[in-house]
């Protein structure tokens, strides 16, 4: 699942819902929900596109699939508290289900039908969404995390801290913790890259994890919860900052955006899948990192998953993209997703537009632009 991002215009953030059928936009005046195809306004409050009263600046808005339940984080409340209040609202009934206050600014909110996760800079709060009971708090040091949309395979993936080896504070690591939100326990810890993580994503069924590092040249896909390497894709030869990674509903395509002007679409085909190496290579001894994890906690150490030996990159050459599309310019912060019902790719761009491209599912190649919409001025409500 992609992270929400700010910067469409001043004080604006946007994100897709869990099945990429809608876009939620938060602005300095309110928030809106727009259907992707056909592109039409579903709900809005306090935005320029409606006559409803100004709600004040909204920092974040997240949907629960296509239901009437949304999570809203105001930029500030009446007391001037910045981004610390979470509202769970019912848009159909125009009512507030509950409000929660947090000790620090809310950086992100993730939902599925079983769990709600609130992301702060140093903690992740896990709630039962049916009654909003706090189930667990996870110590954390970065907002980088993803929640699987699945209710059955309900995993949270988040960047682990580097084990503390000296007096220096631990930083963001190359490891991903796969946390089971139903049993409230660590399922595995995966060493995804050799440099620090930049992006993580889980597929719709909660069975695959995709990762990219700060280098941004390679995207890897691992099995969940085992953490076995399944696919390795080459985004490019030059470093880039990865903004988003998304799976389509069937987990056959992977969409990757970055600060370049190209959006890459990779095919998760049987031919591209990586098979286990021979027993000798698979049994390669893990480095002293394992010992460091042991010192931090037995539960984490016992869950330590795949280690990527240097020779693996020699065994498997990363697969190139199956399809791609070009944006008007590089450097725009973007989130992209493949439609679950039509051969289309939706791209949210930094300038507040939803771009729709046609995707050839048989032959791939360059996607063609179909249309674009300005989300801040949606013309009409859907029926």
Please, could you describe this protein's structure?
Keywords: Repeat, WD repeat. It comes from Malassezia equina. The protein has 383 residues and is mainly β. Helices cover 5% and strands 43% of the residues. It has 4 helices and 30 strands. The chain has helices spanning 279-282, 289-296, 298-302, 312-315; strands at 5-6, 13-16, 22-26, 31-35, 40-45, 58-63, 69-74, 85-90, 95-101, 108-111, 115-119, 123-128, 133-139, 145-147, 155-161, 172-180, 185-191, 197-202, 208-213, 218-223, 229-234, 242-247, 253-258, 262-267, 323-326, 335-338, 344-349, 353-358, 365-366, 368-374. The strands form 7 sheets. It has a 5-stranded antiparallel β-sheet with strand order 1-2-3-4-5, with no helix packed on it. The chain has a 5-stranded mixed β-sheet with strand order 22-23-24-25-29, with no helix packed on it. A 4-stranded antiparallel β-sheet has the order 6-7-8-9, with no helix packed on it.
């Amino acid at each position: 699942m992609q992270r929400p991002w700010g910067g469409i215009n001043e004080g604006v953030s946007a994100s897709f819902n869990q099945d990429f059928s809608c876009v939620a936009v938060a602005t300095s005046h309110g928030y809106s929900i727009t259907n992707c195809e056909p592109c039409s306004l579903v709900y809005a409050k306090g935005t320029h596109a409606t006559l409803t009263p100004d709600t004040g600046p909204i920092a974040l808005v997240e949907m629960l699939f296509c239901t009437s339940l949304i999570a809203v984080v105001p930029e500030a409340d009446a007391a001037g508290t910045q981004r610390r209040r979470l509202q769970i609202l019912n848009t159909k009934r125009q009512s507030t289900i509950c409000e929660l206050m947090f000790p620090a600014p809310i950086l992100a909110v993730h939902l599925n039908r079983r769990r709600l996760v609130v992301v702060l800079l140093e903690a992740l709060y896990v709630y039962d969404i049916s009654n909003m009971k706090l189930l667990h708090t996870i110590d954390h040091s970065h907002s980088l995390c993803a929640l699987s949309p699945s209710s059955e395979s309900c995993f949270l993936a988040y960047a682990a801290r580097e084990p503390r080896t000296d007096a220096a504070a631990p930083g963001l690591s190359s490891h991903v913790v796969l946390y089971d939100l139903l049993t409230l326990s660590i399922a595995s810890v995966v060493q995804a890259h050799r440099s620090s993580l930049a992006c993580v994503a889980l597929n719709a069924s909660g069975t695959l994890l995709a990762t990219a590092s700060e280098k941004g040249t390679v995207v890897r896909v691992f099995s969940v919860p085992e953490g076995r390497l399944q696919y390795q894709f080459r985004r490019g030869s030059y470093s880039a900052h990865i903004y988003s990674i998304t799976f389509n509903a069937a987990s056959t395509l992977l969409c990757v955006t970055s600060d370049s002007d190209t959006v890459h679409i990779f095919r998760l085909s049987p031919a591209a899948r990586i098979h286990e190496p021979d027993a000798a290579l698979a049994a390669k001894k893990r480095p002293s990192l394992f010992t460091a994890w042991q010192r931090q906690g037995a539960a984490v150490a016992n869950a330590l998953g795949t280690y990527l030996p240097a020779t693996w990159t020699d065994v498997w050459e990363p697969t190139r993209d199956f399809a791609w599309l070009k944006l008007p310019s590089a450097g725009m912060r973007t989130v992209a997703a493949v439609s679950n019902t039509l051969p289309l790719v939706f791209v949210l761009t930094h300038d507040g537009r939803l771009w729709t491209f046609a995707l050839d599912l048989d032959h791939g190649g360059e996607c063609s632009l179909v249309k674009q919409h300005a989300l801040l001025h949606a013309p009409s409500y859907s029926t």
